[in-house]
Amino acid sequence: MKDSVASLQVLMVQLASQAALPTLIKSGPQLPNGWVTLTIFTSKALGTVTPVQGFLSVGPVNEDGDLAVTLSLGITWSAYYKNNVTGFPVPENDLKPLPLRIIGKNAPPTVPPAKPPMVLTVFANAYSNVQNFIWDSLTFIEEEYNDIPFYITGMGPGAPIAQICSLDFKNGNIGPKKQDPPAQLAEGYTFSTPAFTNVEFQTFYNSLITKKTMPAQYAVCAATPSIRADFFPLNDGYFALGAIQYIRGLTLPQYDVPWWNRSDVYYLKQLGGEPKKNLIIPVLISNPPAFFSQNMAFVLSLLTAVTYQLAQHPESIIKINITPYTLYKIIGDGTTFAAIFQSPDSVVVAFRGTVNFKEYYTYNCQSTFASVNFIKDSAAAVHAGTAAIYNLPINNASTTVAAALIAELKIIAPNKKLYLAGHDIGGAVASLAATDYAISKYGFNVTALYTFGSTLFSNITFKEYFENNIGPNSYQLLRLKDTSPNAIVTLGYLSLMNPITVNGQLETEEATYHSLEGYINLLNPYESSQSAKDTNSTPTEL
User: Fold this and answer.
1) I need a surface site. Which of 259, 307, 312, 480 has the fewest CB within 10 A?
2) How large is the angle between the packed helices 159-168 and 121-137, nearest 10 degrees?
3) CB 192 within 8 A of CB 50
């Protein structure tokens, strides 16, 4: 029985991950053997609400060849990023009830001051926009496939959509056009699912499962009761739906970085599945700038990975060889946002990107423009979430990340080479800091700036200041298929001087191509036979 559950989870994570691919609508999903696509849909054309995409497929769920239908629902990271531009709103302003046609006529009455069952507005609006497409897709199973099990799955930002859909398909509900829900609705499986409801909604939702009004819902998380690898589901003040299902025998990877730990490949491996193997294509960096060093890029990518580990598992042993560097100091308040490393002749400041859902929504998605205090020109503006991290109050608001870093660097950096590095929005923060250091003349000089999959953060005026002061010594590394960094280009954000395309293909690729783990393995100049292979997970050391 346990083996069959594990096999089903392996199958579901493969299908769920395909629903979040940016290429889904144009190219379709890559399905497991024996599976066939019935239909593909998207709500993209319906305005500025975060679009949902998905597909309906049918195939065997076991070695006996028994068939099932699966509805896979997803939101691409780029779509979530560019359609939520004000950051995480104040909680009271960010929750809303689902329409009666979704939550059902038997929703519990709310007597003030009690609160009604509510979910995050972004997911409520996204589901309402895609609801017609979802119900219309059921026409593809009305005859041939109506009497076989029907599963619903989703991953990451698409997981809440899948959980709402399971509610929409519960006993007693009908579709917008009076359609009947699937006759054989089976249990639902979601992966890396963020908490997104108030406690009243959680209580109501889970009571429907207890009463068997809807099937069991399992939120599979790359964690055990004592060890967490995937931090994305965490969202303080909000509540998870269904039963949290841990992964027995979980191992933390060598590179403990969030976009790998929440990836389809990591989940698949931890559940006992085997990812697709690619033709290995060694890294090729075409026409690099004169002073670019692949060796330095590799070293700085490792130090950035250590910064992520210090935030996610500060108590764990650093398993990455960073010799000749040693950790000098961490900068943050309860969690590391930057770390300072030193060697006999160099200092490195490495900035991490966001780790959990709340951080991602708060900082990555805070895409309004903000001024900077080290440039008097009011026309120079940057991404507000990037500025918020750099100026984040720490130590009981007695200082900020920026001020704490400057104070430390004034002590250890004046007579050494100084390198800055970062991944995702951490790359943007590193670029902001490098510009500050170059313009403000604190008594130390930046030797070089290396970023990996950095998000965009600069308007045209700030770009000029950046390029006049630090640009020639900056190297903005980006994988060809990594679409997350440029998602907000339509909002007026610009790429910076010295973009470097990191070509090449790993033996195993996670779906977003955004994980720092991918950059590390491609940039590794020391083990050419291993540099294009994926990292093997090693036993957890805590």
Assistant:
1) 480
2) 60
3) no
Is residue 150 classed as helix, strand or coil in its secondary structure?
strand
What average pLDDT does this structure show over 251-256?
95
Distances (CA, A) of 422 to 83, 301, 350, 352, 449: 24, 8, 5, 6, 9
Run of H or E residues at 82: helix 77-83
Cα–Cα distance for residue pair 401/502, rounded to 1 Å = 30
Structure-token pair, residue 89: 């709103």
Which residue do the tokens 């045209």 mark? 460
Tell me if residue 511 falls in helix, strand or coil: coil
Are the beta carbons of 28 and 7 closer than 8 angstroms? no
Q: Which residues, other chains included, contact 158 with Cβ-Cβ below 8 Å and sequence gap of 6+?
A: 16, 19, 20, 52, 54, 73, 74, 75
Those residues whose C-beta lies under 8 Å from the C-beta of residue 163, and which sit 6 or more positions away, are 154, 188, 190, 193, 205, 217, 219, 241, 242
Please tell me the distance from the alpha carbon of residue 471 to that of residue 473, in angstroms, as a whole number: 5
Tell me how far apart the alpha carbons of residues 498 and 442 are, in angstroms, rounded to a whole number.
25
The gap from C-alpha 68 to its chain's centroid, in whole angstroms, comes to: 29
Whole-number Cα distances in Å, 115 to 89, 99, 111, 198, 306 = 18, 15, 8, 9, 43
The radius of gyration of the chain from alpha carbons, rounded to an integer in Å, stands at: 24
- What does pLDDT average to over the chain? 93
Q: Cβ neighbours of residue 536 under 8 Å, at least 6 residues apart?
A: 254
What separation, in Å, do the N-terminal and C-terminal C-alpha atoms of the chain show? 32
Q: 283 with 504: CB under 8 angstroms? A: yes
Query: In 19-71, which ranges are continuous DSSP H helix?
Result: 24-27
Alpha helices in 458-512 (DSSP H): 460-469
Confidence of residue 89 (pLDDT cuts 50, 70, 90): confident
Report the distance separating Cα 379 and Cα 198, nearest Å.
41
For the chain, give the number of residues. 542
